[in-house]
User: Which sequence fits this backbone?
């Protein structure tokens, strides 16, 4: 059994990784323990409001790289520990059996060398799958500069893999994570995407990353504007077929002359997630939602800001507007839009109906008509004022509406 | 007229036949206060009539018995009224109504069913098994809705080698999987001899839970929203160490 101290160190080094999602895999239990849960499943919530789904842990925090922002960087004076593959496997099995976790999210520092670290990750997940007969969810972090063969083999056992881009531009990467290069991160992503498509095309029976790939970048440690970050995310979705791009507000865990002293504003992360949602579920493009100055508005959520720039498209009539137009109305989410489209088949919807259906009208009323009636404010500057005030209030009540925990708790899906 | 019934599907269907023509009908399976002057009927289950009602309803909406099952599991005080209004509407419309999303009876029924299904989903995550000395797993729960048997297929699929008991301590019943078959049984109290390592794994789990938290980003309200305090009773990560 792993010691409490070791568990503590290896968990604390892993906890800033945002991804915790356990969705997207329908892996069956093949005669052992565990299976996939397509919609994902949260097992607990910590006092920071985040969901605990996977056992998120490092195999080792003993690193040869010197990424400036990382508490485990080679020259930092922290206790170094390395778990054995058996310790990790036992922990997964006994936690899973008690239903504490949905699976494993295994990562590692670059222990000894990229290939050694990747190999140890591979040995661990292979052991878990084949010797411990575990079929629950496994997310494996990819180590940059590791051999393509090791990456490929890990993908045969994992449900999801992620190579973290860390920073949104090559210059920042050079400055803050000098041993990582854009190519060392993007090239394995492309490799896995190619191999995954090939497995699918050949209808192979083995699993190959059924839950795909994700990545993560730190926001606020380097100077890139929101627009650059969102265009990068959009490319990753469109070109590399990624399932999720995570953003994490920079938290100064280590002091370094090249890094800001203060934590990045959480509002920025919040806005980026709102924009990311618009890219993935609302049919928006990055170009549409970024302001002229290359950033997202801080006063309004990005959909509101877009609508205010495009007032000539509004109001739309809820009884007639196509789904795509409803999805672009501020305050109307995916669920409300679908509800409206179903309900209007049976009746001509009024504002009363919308209220009963719990469509939130606070923002939407300025942008819709229901049965020809308009209940919003005609004066544009008054609308701006109301929307900005509403946004502030909404944030005060619930900042990270779009954080993973929030979404998974609301819909059970990530 | 107030129709009392025992909360079972058959009794509900019998009551539905009686209450259908009665526009003032009130349906109740709880200890409803008797309204002075109101007439009351205690509905006795008539299996034959219930079966006929079921067949007729299924002809109108082939999925409606699934809805009824969820509605009758609800712990909401008005669930009988909600179910009655929903099934009256199905009968009146002569077909499925679940997509009439602006209709009061449908909105109420959908909300009621959503809560039951959502609690099942939540408990897929929130159930905490204790390992007994024999290796069998035991999880006490106290859910809002009557769902313990609905949790079985999920855990049976992932832990087929482990017999388990999910004990609804509030309703004094348990869903049991004996390694072979699953069944429901009344269960008042369970005496469990824990395995030698159970305590150590719980300690490790608490250590993990504490370590993965980011204290500088405390959002207690959000945590409680996703994991309501009433569910904490059986979650070891919410016990303080040494207890």
Assistant:
């Amino acid at each position: 059994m792993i010691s409490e101290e070791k568990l503590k160190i290896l968990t604390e080094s892993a906890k800033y990784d945002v991804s915790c999602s356990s969705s997207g895999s329908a892996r069956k239990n093949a005669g052992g323990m565990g299976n996939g849960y397509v919609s994902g499943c949260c097992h607990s919530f910590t006092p920071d409001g985040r969901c605990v789904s996977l056992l998120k842990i490092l195999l080792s925090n003993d690193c040869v790289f010197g990424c400036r922002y990382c508490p485990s960087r080679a020259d930092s004076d922290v206790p170094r520990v390395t778990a054995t593959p058996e310790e990790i496997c036992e922990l997964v099995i006994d936690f899973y059996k008690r239903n504490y976790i949905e699976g494993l999210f295994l990562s590692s520092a670059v222990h000894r060398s990229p290939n050694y670290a990747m190999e140890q990750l591979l040995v661990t997940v292979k052991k878990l799958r084949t010797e411990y007969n575990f079929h629950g969810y496994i997310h494996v972090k990819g180590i940059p500069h590791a051999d393509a063969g090791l990456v490929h083999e890990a993908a045969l056992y994992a449900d999801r893999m992620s190579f973290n881009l860390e920073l949104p531009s090559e210059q920042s990467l050079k400055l803050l994570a000098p041993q990582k290069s854009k190519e060392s991160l993007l090239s394995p992503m492309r490799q896995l995407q190619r191999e995954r498509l090939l497995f699918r095309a050949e209808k192979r029976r083995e699993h190959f990353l059924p839950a795909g790939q994700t990545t993560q970048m730190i926001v606020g440690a380097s100077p890139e504007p929101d627009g650059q970050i969102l265009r990068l995310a959009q490319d990753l979705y469109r070109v590399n077929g990624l399932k999720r791009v995570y953003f994490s507000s920079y938290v100064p865990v280590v002091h370094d002359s090249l890094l800001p002293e203060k934590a990045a504003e959480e509002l920025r992360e919040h806005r980026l997630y709102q924009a990311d949602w618009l890219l993935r579920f609302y049919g928006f493009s990055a170009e549409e939602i970024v302001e002229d100055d290359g950033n997202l508005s801080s006063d309004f959520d990005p959909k509101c800001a877009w609508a205010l720039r495009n007032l000539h498209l509004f109001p739309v009539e809820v009884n007639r507007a196509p789904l795509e137009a409803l999805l672009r109305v501020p305050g109307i989410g995916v669920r409300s839009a679908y509800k409206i489209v179903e309900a209007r088949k049976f009746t001509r919807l009024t504002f009363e109906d919308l209220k009963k259906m719990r469509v939130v009208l606070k923002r939407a009323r300025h942008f819709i008509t229901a049965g020809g009636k308009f209940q919003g404010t005609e004066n544009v500057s008054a609308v701006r004022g109301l929307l900005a005030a509403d946004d502030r209030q909404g944030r005060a009540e619930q900042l990270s509406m779009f954080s993973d925990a929030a979404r998974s708790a609301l819909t059970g899906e990530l | 007229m107030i129709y009392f019934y025992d909360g079972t599907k058959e009794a509900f269907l019998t009551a539905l036949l009686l209450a259908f023509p009665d526009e003032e009908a009130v349906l109740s399976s709880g200890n409803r206060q008797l309204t002075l002057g109101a007439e009351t009927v205690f509905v006795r289950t008539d299996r034959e009539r219930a079966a006929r009602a079921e067949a007729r309803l299924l002809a109108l909406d082939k999925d409606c018995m699934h809805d009824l099952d969820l509605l009758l599991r609800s712990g909401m005080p008005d669930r009988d009224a909600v179910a009655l209004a929903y099934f009256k509407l199905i009968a009146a419309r002569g077909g499925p109504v679940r997509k009439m999303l602006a209709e009061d009876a449908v909105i109420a029924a959908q909300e009621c069913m959503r809560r039951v299904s959502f609690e099942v989903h939540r408990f897929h995550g929130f159930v905490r098994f204790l390992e007994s000395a024999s290796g069998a797993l035991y999880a006490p729960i106290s859910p809002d809705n009557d769902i313990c048997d609905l949790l079985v297929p999920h855990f049976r699929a992932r832990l087929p080698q482990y017999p388990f008991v999910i004990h609804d301590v509030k309703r004094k019943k348990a869903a049991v999987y004996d390694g072979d078959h699953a069944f429901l049984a009344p269960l008042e109290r369970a005496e469990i001899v824990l395995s030698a390592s159970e305590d150590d794994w719980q300690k490790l789990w608490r250590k993990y839970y504490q370590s993965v938290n980011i204290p500088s980003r405390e959002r207690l309200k959000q945590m409680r929203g996703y994991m309501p305090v009433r569910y904490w009773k059986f979650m070891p990560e919410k016990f303080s160490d040494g207890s």
Remarks:
- Residues 182-201 of chain A form the longest helix (20 residues).
- Residues 399-414 of chain A have pLDDT under 50 and may be disordered.
- Chain A has 16 helices and ten strands.
